[in-house]
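Please describe our next protein:
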Amino acid sequence: MEQKIEKQKEIEKLINAKEFQFVARNSNSPTFRMIDLSIIPNFITFKPDFIKSEMPFFGRGFSGLGYGGSDTGLKFEGKPEKFVVNKHKKGYQIEASVRGQQDFFNITLIVSSEGNSTLTIISNNRESISYFGEISAIEKEEK
């Protein structure tokens, strides 16, 4: 019980600071069933002034995507045009939007009080995709 309360405090601190990272265990899109991502490096880093996504993408692309292996997944970074945190009874909902080089991304992250999370990314050029994982403190990048 005490561990659970510690975890809840840690998650609340991360959310209140608006600085954390999401890592997915698996993903689900309308085109593909559940895909295990535990061996595929992935993350999306949230900060009030900068969001960076290195998420893989499985699904249908629409216009504006390159063909022939040049698709890099949902890799984008930038200053969020929207970054809103709402607290609910059982956790948090974060709404963010980022304009990438060739696309616009609407991001919704639902976080339980223990850190388990569902990330949904909707973009103009692809079908929506959801990822299931958890949030944690941002790992310091190796220089």
Q: What stands out?
A: The chain has one domain: 2-126. The radius of gyration is 15 Å.
